[in-house]
What we know:
Blueprint: H1 3-24, H2 26-49, H3 58-76, H4 88-107, H5 113-137, H6 148-170, E1 181-183, E2 187-191, H7 192-212, H8 225-253, H9 268-292
Helix pairs in contact: 1-2, 2-3, 2-5, 3-4, 3-5, 4-5, 5-9, 6-7, 6-8, 6-9, 7-8, 8-9
Amino acid sequence: MSNLTQRLITAFIAIPIVFVLLWFNDFSRIGLMCFLGAVGAWEWARMASKMYAGPDMRYLSFASSLALTLAWALSKGGYFGLPAVPYVVGMTFLAIFAIYIGVAYAKVEIDHLFPWLVMQLGAPLYVGLWGGMNVLMMGNGQGFEHCYPFILVMTAVWLCDTVAYFFGKFAAGKGPFGRHLFAPSISPKKTWEGSIAGSIATVAWVAYWVKCSAALSSFEMNFTWTSAIVIGLLITVAGQVGDLLMSALKRWSGTKDSGNLFVGHGGVLDRCDSFLLAAPALYIFMDFLKTIV
């Protein structure tokens, strides 16, 4: 079976499952975020272990990311029939830090203790932040309207990746377009031409949905075309930076794919690399806007 066939079969199975879980209710959405975040943290820890010697942190990273995503849900309130639980995110952060620092001092050689700790902490904190920010942007109840921000960011980063790939592959270097490598030491196939084309498509997509639909109605703000374009720029820049960050992690660890959960596509971090930074960037930016508007 060819790789393309495997990719198509996986997509036809995975995409409907994801959208059913997003539509069904808040518990299925939290479950989806917990699962993707925990598996992503497992993959990160596996790659980090190839860079610096130390104990196997995959199980702890899995559990820590799961706990952090659930902590964000509890901090919001309305989930599991509970009111908002104050300080739960901060206490979870402190507990994770304490456990990882304890493991580092007990099990890791002093000459690479700090870089090992930084790389391993990235698993639950970076991936767990993504899961938590997504949970905070989601509402309670059945229907896609309760997760419009998630769907907006997801489709935006997919669009950016797709346009950048095809434009860079088939248009860059032909006709009026040049071909300038974007980050050759990290991702040698990316081009500035593809990046710009993907950014233009993403900004147009996001600006339209922000201004002309209820995509971000959960933030209870009125959006101008200017603010909609700024949000589009934020998502595309954060998404591409997130993509490069994951490419760098894989290159530094000598890993081709972060995992094999999605046959033909790789792991969670392979599929969600752009999403991991774009979603938190959107939530933090929107939260900032609400404080100044």
